[in-house]
Amino acid sequence: MSETFDLILKNGTIHTPGGAEQADVGVRGGRIVAIGTGLGDAGETIDCTGLDVLPGCIDSQVHFREPGLEHKEDLESGSRAAVLGGITAVFEMPNTNPNTDTAERVHDKLKRAHHRMWCDHAFYVGATADNAEHLRDLERIPGTAGVKIFMGASTGSLLVDDDNALARVLASGTRRVAIHAEDETRMNARKGHALAGDPSSHPVWRDDESAMIATKRIIGLARAARRRIHILHITTPAELAYIGQNKDIATCEVTPQHLTLAGEEAYPRLGTYAQMNPPIRSGAHRDGLWHWLNQGVPDVLGSDHAPHTIEEKAKPYPTSPSGMPGVQTLVPLLLNHVAEGRLTLRRFIELTSSGPQRVFGLVGKGRIALGYDADFTVVDLKKRWTVGSDWLASRCNWSPFEGMELTGKAIGTIIRGHRVMWEDALANDAVGEAVRFEATEFA
Fold it and tell me: How many CA atoms lie within 13 A of 294 on its CB side?
């Protein structure tokens, strides 16, 4: 007697830990319970003929601006953009207003997000000099992605820039700590390099050494504290070469925009819309990131989705805010790189699914395997299309990639067996729930 499933994905190319295969996937109770052919009947069947079924893609760095900055974005609108782009889970950053730096504020975000966010989610706790000794308890709250340190001032008021305070933060807790590594002292000394009205001077002000000094400092402090770290949005090849020598203690992230944009073209075309921290650098930097990515050094891809309104970005540099949206374009941009031969699909899956699972200790996510959450990003690798404003869902309503012709697109986003998005149409209801971590489930 054949089994009955809640959902079957049929006739697709399924990407399991063993590789790609033509198979069906059976889902029951939100989890994967069968992989094979002739599985039986289901309450819902999705025909994936001609499509590739990937493990659900995870964006481990987004800024959704709620609470306090909802005119830029909120948890609903940001997560809607995420699932329209094929993202099944996000880790949201703490530089909101107020900052997410107490247990009360973490629980407030979790309450706001439950079944209001379209995708699954976790929230970082922001480190400060004042809460350093409390971080060992805060990082254990279910639904937290860990602790985030801003070594260089970015959007918001979280900043931990001196070695004594950094050492106190690293001494409090055991989970991997996420780092924004730019050296505040050097950037303050170089403010004169930020030329009024010239956003192309942004990477001159926040130069390579600002990043490298901070990366070396934090790795040294982490080694002294015997604390694992995760360095976000790496922009220089030299940093990746250095991190490659310190993989026992440091993992790292690269972003689609740093792999796609080159300053020589981006600043004349986009102006302040290309402004972010750390900066978009030269084409040589971009090519260097690809070299080290193909050497296996970066562990994950994160969008650093950081929306600002058109009115805010229209301010003259350097009064314009740094940051750009990206959660909706992460998957298609990288699929386009796959189509153009810069990236293998296997490496893409590693950077967006199994990599986040390994780095952050996720429970039940990151692969298509029995017992795992039924999270799938269903893609058409051959679909040719143009990023249009009518597709963008972020409240800021712009993208540096608008008008770009791409090959590859997410056709469907399935989260714990729920078809949340299919062919750009959303489900009736949001189903987002907190992501589970080994460090909080089994503390």
Answer: 12
In this structure, the answer to whether residues 293 and 390 fall within a common structural domain is no
> Sign of the C-alpha dihedral, residues 209, 210, 212, 213?
positive
Give the separation between CA 65 and CA 96, rounded to whole angstroms: 5
> What are 13's strand-pairing partners?
22, 52
Q: What is the pLDDT of residue 1?
A: 42
- For the question of residue 108 being annotated catalytic, the response is no
Whole-number pLDDT of residue 152:
87
Same domain, 30 and 68: no
Provide the CATH number for the domain around residue 131: 3.20.20.140
Q: Which amino acid is at 429?
A: D
Contact 121, 432 (CB under 8 A): yes
Domain end marker among 360, 389, 410: 360
Indicate whether 150 belongs to any domain. yes
Kindly name the residue from 120, 299, 304, 373 that is annotated as catalytic.
304
Is the pTM value of this prediction over 0.85? yes
pLDDT the model gives residue 251? 98
Find the domain containing 108 and state its range.
59-360
pLDDT at 222: 98
Q: Which residues of the chain have pLDDT under 70?
A: 1-2, 154-157, 443
